[in-house]
Amino acid sequence: MLFADVILPLPVPGMFTYKVPEALQNRVEIGKRVVVQFGSRKLYAAIIAVLHHTAPQLYKPKSILDILDDQPVVYPANIAFWRWVADYYMCSIGEVMHAALPPGLKLDSETTIALHPAWDESLTDLDNEEFIITETLRNKHSLTLNQVEKITGTRSPHKLIKSLIEKNAVFAFETFSERYKPKTKTVLHLAAELSDESRLGSLLDELQRAPRQHRALLAFLEAGTPEPDKSALLSQPGVTAAAVRQLIQKGILQEKKITVDRLPSAAFSKPFTYELNVLQQRALEEIRQWFQHKNTVLLHGVNASGKTFVYTSLIKETLHSGRQALLLLPEIAMSTQTLNRLQELIGPQVGIYHSGFGINERVEIWNKLLRKDYSVIIGTRSAVFLPFDHLGLVIIDEEQDASYRQSDAAPGYHARDTAIALAYHTGAKTLLGSSVPSVDSYQNARTGKYGFVSLRERYDKAPLPKITVVNLREEIKKRRMQSVFSWTLLEAIKQTLARNEQVILFKNRRGFAPYLSCHNCGWIPKCISCDVSLSFFKERNILRCHYCGYASNPITQCPKCGSADIRLHGFGTEKAEEDIKICFPDSTVGRLDYDAARTRAAGERILQDFEQHHIDILVGTQMIVRAMEADSLTLTAILSADQLLGFPDFRVNERAFQFLEQLAGKAARKDRNTHIIIQAFDATHPLLEFAIRHDFEGFFYHEIPFRKKFSYPPFSRLIRLTFKHRNKDTAAKGARHFLHSINNSHPYLQLLGPAPPFVERMKNLYLQQILIKIKKTAPLQQIKTHILQNLKSTRQHPGFKSLKVEIEVDP
């Protein structure tokens, strides 16, 4: 008997063993999807991970029902990599599979109902909704749960269906279908017997009596291809659908459906040639030398130093050796631009992969990689899970970017670290590129774990901007403030606009005001589901929670004391936009944040308007970094730097410095002097001094002693556990129960908490957190296993069975 261990796309531990029926044994293969029943009725598409002849001891295995693929959709190396991700990020391999596969390859069954053949309507008393369902089933053979919901207007049709089953009116079964649908088109071709020109000429003469058919056949022959697109033919002048149909019925034309590519073809004529300058060539040589004895190299290259050309040279060398390359980028917007550039530099074997593609497009990219149509993939974080089998090079651009962290669902992976592990599993080399490296990566380079190469000079030799820090305390004392703008900033804006140049104003908070309060009693409107104040959005005239999206009407009278003295506190991008319009009424002001750019098209329109100088001053959140390519931009201002520096996170200084340096690199112009103004109450913060000097090394050596003193990465590893429950006491008790079970059990651990996080209640769940610091010398996997065992024990306790626990590795 042959057995298969399969991975189910579910948050269940381990794999499950199924029998392989004799009829399917010649088709089973590791990496193929199979249909299996899990539970009493539900069907899933699982992945075969192991084939063997050992029957499970603890349960009687069910049989595989069907095999979905002719060829494997993943390689054995991919499954081994999934195992590593599951072990490292403390989740199930099923959760990794769910994250890895594109939605079009993840299938499960749907409950469907049909009329029971033995049903006698004269003997059954049906209510109105039940009658509607049975009448609909007379005309349709079956209905899914979603269809029943739409027909009856009920959100939960299970009770209704249960009643119909009990009355013997319907029976339920599971249906299973592929979500991916290949795109097809209908083409026409001439019947084989008409290939002879004389016979074709005679036919055209005969069709003179049927002018519409004659015109349609002529249009077909003039199409310039032996199999023209039917829809394109019907768009020709004088060609009717009826005439084409008659030609098909007579056997003159024949039609067939062919599968076509959904992905846009690369628009290029021939690969673009380029030459590296002296510094780029030197960097390339150093990277090659490091790769001889190091698997990972950090390339510290300032903005616009030409890192892309170095990447391209390495990718070309990788392709010449017969291997594949992966280039990771932090944002979708960057990936499209880089794709166009690399297709010009390398050719059509470059593909792109990110979550912005639809279900079908992502499956087609996946299949193209399996067919070896692509040798190079540019993608965002999810591209690490693509099915590579000859990977030779992994490049992670802007490796420090927070966008590489997946935090919405398990596995909570960091794409940079995961990509390094992918390269290790496939024997590939890894290049980390950054204008401002992360403290962790720079420490790894400094201690010799990574190779290190520096590219410090900009390709266009543009000087970095002058940075001025404005002390808001002093400005307020001297009464030199107009709204939220200092006199220094307003003067700089005035001079910039006089030179017909552009301005960007950065404020990392959406809306008009962070919160409202009653001036009489201090009452503040809060979210009903989260422990946060509601922000005021003036444009839409609502109060909204940034965490769960709850919204309510603005408050005009305090519900606690009845006072009408309701005041706004703080400011966001809406207020900054409104006030700068008052200061410069003759200038065009725009705003770029999540609210102004709710769709990609809206965001692109704002960016285009700024680049074409239809906007003089642009106010926005971090999204404005994308607008900094505008040629006329010479002044950038951070309206409140204290917000960047005051967040309760041990990486806050690192992220603030990285943001300021990236801003400076983006703002630099070869032919113009550029200026960055930073407004801050804490104007003497050491980080601002390093930013003024663009001194990354100074910042690093200032930051690293604090990390070491308090045992934070890179001197330790962190695991954060968040305990969630609707009851506040249950969340706290569950966290304490876990803490007592694990405390002092390992000399390598330091535990902090339990304590509520910055936001104690979110989406009606109370939160308690425990931070576990693990020494670098610790047996990491053994400790993770110990933590999972204690979590399992805690959740099996009678009082904590409904307790939810979120695990974050390297938070």
Indicate the topology.
Elements: E1 3-7, E2 16-19, E3 33-37, E4 43-52, E5 66-67, H1 76-88, H2 93-100, E6 110-115, H3 128-139, E7 143-144, H4 145-152, H5 158-166, E8 170-175, E9 183-190, H6 197-206, H7 211-221, H8 230-234, H9 241-249, E10 253-260, H10 278-291, E11 296-301, H11 307-320, E12 324-328, H12 332-345, E13 350-353, H13 359-370, E14 376-379, E15 391-397, H14 415-426, E16 429-434, H15 439-446, E17 451-455, E18 466-471, H16 472-477, E19 481-482, E20 485-486, H17 487-498, E21 502-506, E22 515-518, E23 535-537, E24 542-544, E25 551-552, E26 566-569, H18 573-583, E27 589-592, H19 600-611, E28 617-620, E29 633-638, H20 642-645, H21 652-667, E30 675-680, H22 686-693, H23 696-709, E31 716-725, H24 728-742, E32 749-755, E33 761-762, E34 765-775, H25 780-796, E35 804-809
Parallel strand pairs: 11-16, 11-17, 12-14, 12-15, 13-14, 15-16, 18-30, 21-28, 21-29, 27-28, 29-30
Antiparallel strand pairs: 1-2, 1-4, 3-4, 3-5, 6-7, 6-8, 9-10, 19-20, 22-26, 23-24, 24-25, 31-34, 31-35, 32-34, 33-34
Describe this entry's structure for a reader.
The chain is 34% helix and 22% strand. It contains 25 helices and 35 strands. The strands form nine sheets. The chain has a seven-stranded parallel β-sheet with strand order 13-14-12-15-16-11-17, with helices on both faces. The longest helix is centred in the C-terminal third of the chain and has 17 residues, at 780-796. The two termini are 46 Å apart. The mean pLDDT is 88.
